Amino acid sequence: HGCTVGQLDDEALFYLRSRGIPLKEAQATLMYAFANDVLSNVKIGELKHKINRIIAEKLGVDISLEI
């Protein structure tokens, strides 16, 4: 993932933006996808939910996903 080196993939960002997704949400989606790779290893549901909320808060978006 591009965010491992501090930059998002410009092509992925363009793809999301070209489908009408606002910049902030497109960036958050890409960053969340990276974080979710790590989060998928958390096996404790309550902890996973709390980490998910923290990630959404840090990204400044409302990510309402059931994990």
Question: TL;DR?
Answer:
The chain is mainly alpha-helical. It has 3 helices and no strands. The radius of gyration is 12 Å and the shape is elongated.
Word description of this protein:
The protein has 67 residues and is an all-alpha fold. 61% of the residues lie in helices and 0% in strands. The chain has three helices and no strands. Helix 1 crosses helix 2 (23-39) and helix 2 runs antiparallel to helix 3 (45-59). The radius of gyration is 12 Å and the shape is elongated. The model has no long low-confidence stretch (mean pLDDT 81).
Number of strands: 0
Tell me the quaternary state: single chain
Spatial shape: elongated
Order of helices and strands: HHH
Contiguous runs where pLDDT drops below 50 for at least 5 residues: none
- Helix content range: 55-70%
Distance between the termini: 21 Å
Compute the number of helices: 3
Indicate the structural class.
Answer: mainly alpha
Strand content: under 5%
What is the arithmetic mean of pLDDT?
A: 81
Report the radius of gyration as a whole number of Å: 12 Å
- Characterize the biggest β-sheet: none
Write the layout of secondary structure elements.
Layout lengths: L9 H9 L4 H17 L5 H15 L8
Please give a handful of descriptors for the protein shown.
67 residues; mainly alpha; 3 helices; elongated
